[in-house]
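Exercise: predict the fold of this chain.
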Amino acid sequence: MSRNVTILGAGLVGSLLSVILRKQGYAVDLYERRPDMRAAHMSAGKSINLATSARGWKALELAGLKDEIMDLAIPMYGRQLHFQDGSTAFQPYSKNNEAIYSVSRGELNKRLMTLAEKHGVKLHFEHKCTHVDVANNVADFQRADKSATSVKSDLMFGADGAFSALRESYTHMSRVNCDQVYLDYGYKELAILPGKNGEWMMEKNALHIWPRGNYMLIALPNTDKTFTCTLFMPFEGPVSFANLKTEADVTKFFDEQFADAKALMPELLHDFFNNPTSALVTMRVSKWHHEDKNALIGDAAHAIVPFYGQGMNAGFEDCSVLLSLMEAHGDDWKTILEHYEVKRKPNGNAVGQLALLNFVEMRDKVGDPMFLERKKVEKELGKLFPEQFVSVYEMVSFSHIPYDTAISCIENQDALLAQIMSRGNFFDNITTDGFTAELENWVSDYHAAVSRLDFGTGATI
C-alpha cells in the first residue's frame, strides 16, 4: 500500500491536492522551490487574478475548504466593457445571474498552504527539484544553501507548474513528447487603487475589459478595493511593448487608448517600468503518468493561457477527478492513474484551445455590436430552451460538463446563431408565430446534433 506521497510544487493545485491526500490517510510532503510566501515579501508583477468558477468551487468543497476560502472572493456577474470613446456596456455572463469570482492568487495560495499545514501536511520551502528518477520515484533537490538532498516516495505528483521538473524528466523517457507554444503577446501587471476615502473606483462586481483589437487591458477586483489590471499586447510591432520605451511613450499611449483607466492609476509609470513583461505559454505533454508511481497535475500537465479564467479551475478539477477515482479504486494507484489520464488528458487539451479562442473574443469581438447582439440572443435561447441549449461559455464556467464536450459544441452553436441572426432582429422576430415555430425546429436540430456527446452525469445540454 502506497502511503508516503511527495508533491512537487506548493502552488494552488499542489496545496489543494495535499489536503485531499492527507484526508485520505496519506503522509504528504510538499516541496516548493520558492521561500514561504507567507513570511517573505513577494513582489507584484507576475500575477493575473483568478476567476474561480464552478469547477474550482466544487474541488474546494470536496476538500472541505470552500468556507475557508469564500471570504477572499468577489463575485463578478459579467464583463464591463470600456470603449475608446469613454462609453461602457455590461455583458452578463449567465442567463441565471451566476457569477465567476475574483480571487487574489497570492492570498489564495497563502490560505491553502496554511490549511495544508493545519491538516498535517509537511511543507519544505526553498527546495528546488533538479531531477526526478521517474522509474524509482526519487526526486533530487537543491536547497537554498546549494546543498543537495534526495527523497524517495511511494507516490509522487508533479504540481510544479508550466516548467515542471517531473514533466521535464518525462521528456527524457522514450516516446514522450512535449509541445511548448508561446503567444507573440506578453502581459504586464498594473493596478487601480482605491479612492481618497477608500472607496471602489469602478463597479466591483464585474470583470472590466478595455478591448482594442490587437491588445487589451483587463481589471479584476480585490477585497482591499484595488483592482489588479493586466495589459496584454504584442512583444513586437507597431503597437507593442517594444515601442513603449519611455515615460512619455507610456503616458501618450494610455491617454489615447485607456484614458478612463489611466485616470485611476496614480502608480502607472512606476508599475509599468518596474513590473516584468511576462510570456504566455501553452504546454501539452503526451504522457501524464508513469505506472503506479507518479503523475502530472494542473499546469504541469496542461499549462494554458489565462483568457478563459480556467487554469486554476482545470487544475482543481484534476483534483476532484483524482478524489473520485480514489473513492472508487481505493489504493490501486495503477488503475487510478490510468483512468485519471484517460479522463483528464482530452479535457486538458480542450481547455487549452478554449483559452486561445477566448483571447480572440476578449481582444477583438467584445466591442463588435453584432457580437454583443449575438450574446443577448444566446442568453435568451438559454431561457427559452433551458433543457436544449446552454452556451459554451456557461458550459465551461457554470457547469461540470467536460471541456472537450463544450468545445465540440462550438461549430453547431455558431451555425444555430448564424441561422437565427440571418433573419434580422431576433427580439422583434420572436413575437411572431412563424418565426417561433422555425426557431423551435432549429433548436431541436441543434439538440439532436449534440446529444451524442458526453455531457457528464446529470448535465443538461
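Check your answer against the key: The first strand starts at residue 4 and ends at 8.
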